[in-house]
Input
Amino acid sequence: MTLAKNEKIKVEFKNVAKQFGDRVILKDFSLKVPEGKTVVVLGGSGTGKSVSIKCLLGLLTPDNGDILVDGESVINLKEKQQYKLMEKFGMLFQFGALFDSLTNWQNVAFALLEQGIKPAEAKKTAIEKLALVGLGPHVADLMPAEISGGMKKRVSLARAICTNPEIVLYDEPTTGLDPITADTIDRLIVEMRDKLNITGIAITHDMQSAFKIADYIALLYQGEIIYYDTVENTKTTDNPYIKQFINGEENGPIDFFGK
Amino acid sequence: MRFVNFVGEKSIKQLNAIGDVGLFIHSFFVQLFRFPIYLKLTLRQAELLGVNSLPIVLLTSFFTGAVLALQTYHGFGNKAFADASLGSVVALSMLRELGPVLASLMVSGRVGAAIAAEIGTMKVSEQIDAMITLATNPIKYLVVPRVLACCIMVPILVIIANVTGIFGGYLVATNMLDIGSYSYIQNSFSNVQFSDIFLGLVKALVFGFIIGIMGCYHGMKTESGAEGVGKATTTAVVYSSVLILIADYFVTAFMF
Output
């Protein structure tokens, strides 16, 4: 697939490879993410979706290839540049990854507090962000252990957008949530893209959610992106791999267990 | 051939681990002198790790001092010897050796494990990754306050352990062994020099550093779920205890 010409590329993976010991996770991972769009990367469990995101965030270093953000390489940055780069990113972790020694508002405002913003002011911003994800101010003073899984994910989403990042990464945003809460999260992701022009990369295997939030859909299989197209085209595609994935069929060209 | 292979593999693994700890300590010192300084977090850790270890340290050191007096008395089986030197034997042993080592071992079991478990849980639930994505260095935010708290609190605990141990010895000597209170106290202090106390405190500082670094290092290296956290906790305690005993020898050998 070729992206429309006028689209600015925000994030680009170029032939990224990563292996752990003898296990090859990413073989030749290439992906272009246009600015202000959400790309959903599909793939079975253990196909390296999370690894690709961790490479982008500098939590892992690829063995080969390059990753560009705004046209500049983000591989092997010095510590200071790395933390500077992080200000462009927000990340929604699969299980929220809230700091359990801090209250919800301290979690949301963590980056602000670290920047030296006064607690009273930071708390105000945190409550605003919590309202954005549909949580009332009473949640602010509770601890993460005192709220439900779905609420944790929303708090985590509020934390991810608290410093107005340009790029937000979603690691299985709806996995493990009931359909209604999942829909709320999906709506929030779409809203964030439309209102704040956030570039999103989501990894998931929840097809319903993928169709709701995505502008583009990519399929990761055996360490490579084997399919990449707009969401409209994906709905009608006859690509056997993506069809097997969408329909959730055990038999087909994709062989997760064969190896 | 297989044996050589095995030995080689193990050696490389161990050397790698030592190098890794070295790098970890290096980044600790780099972050130590960098702003911002988390005074509040450090004090909070000092309270959690230090103040809360007080009961266990008091108990162990009291009974150590007491048994030391008993053992020395019965071991030499000589009233004249006991009158002349029991006080200084107890005081010197406590100050130079038993106070620092036993208090640190107790603290390593309690605090080293707690640190490794807490940081390990944060690691496996992706909280450490989350912290990095929020542009905060986990070494600065988590490791520095904990190691500093250990370096401050272990020496303080050791001072308290020394006093309690000597008091335990005193109680046994005067109440059970029929040694005069005045002569025991005088005997205790006549042979103690400032360097004895100083040696004990240098040891305490080194041990505190070991406990903090080992707890944090193994916590940060935790992998794969609850089992990983358990493993990290055990490893942290085992390594810090062994390293405390090894460091104990070298500090003693180098300083006297």
